[in-house]
Amino acid sequence: MKKYFLLIIFILAGAGLYAQVDSMIFSNGNYIVGELKKMDRGVLTIETDYSDDDFKIEWGGVTEIYTTSHFLVTLSDGTRLNGRLESSEQGKIRIITEDEGTIVTESHTIVYLKSIDKGFWDQVYASIDIGLDLTKANNFKQFSTRSTMGYLAEKYSVDLFFNTLNTRQDDTDDISRTEGGATFKYYLPSDWYIPVSVNFLSNTEQKLDLRTTTNLGIGKYVLHTNKTYWGFSVGANFNNEKFSSDDDDHSSMEGLIGTELNMFDIGDLSLLTKLEAFPSFTEAGRWRSDFKFDLKYDLPLDFYIKLGFTLNYDNRPVEGASEIDYVFHTGFGWEW
Length: 336
Known about the structure:
mainly beta, Porin, twelve-stranded antiparallel barrel, ten-stranded antiparallel sheet, 1 helix, disordered N terminus
């Protein structure tokens, strides 16, 4: 009976009597009618007229879905589609597109949904978190921030990040570190992608006034599900450096080998770790590596607590500088 009720609403919505009505039936027999905003990391976000807060429901608990909204849909094999969703037979969903016609797929192969009916800003995501440490001994003060912003389209994505760290204490030189960058990814069939990125780093520990890197490569997701993304990439990198102990700029060509693991089906926890190695083509025997680890615990109202670790290694630093620079970050933040 519930199924027929939802189908009637869906038909009326399509006739224009209701605006943007999406409906879902769950494995426990309950149903909900509202506006489906997205499905990311195995969780649906639904807005209704009768609740101040959005509902968040696990994708695995949905047995049937019918949408009037159009979505950017990503499948586990890397296929990207644009269309409406309708349940067909048990465990299968029809994706009704304008260009590719109707595609039928298993529900578990859908790893990402994002409504595209609203406009540019609805495709944007962002987060910012702040950390502050104060200690009476030596008048120690440390302030750190981490921020990200991104945009996801059908065939490409753009991601930006900017992180800072500043430390002061009596009888010791100030410590500062600033890093940021932008990455563009163009998605190819079968979960291949082309990444292009520009990054910069400045830190006092390695006497580095500024390092600017520009790289181009090719990558592939070897695991792409509602629980985990895991990918590898290779490419080439142009490295330009200016050190505080040297007035001249240093430029070199490097290789790039990287891997990134993103896990998000561990309760309210999510984990992101990334490792990149840069063997030099023009400076024999030199190689660098960058490592990143973020563990995030989700709180209500899109707030979160984050524990982060970043490490930069250079086996041939300038004279007087350290081979390793690392940062531990604990922060409280908000995402949208």
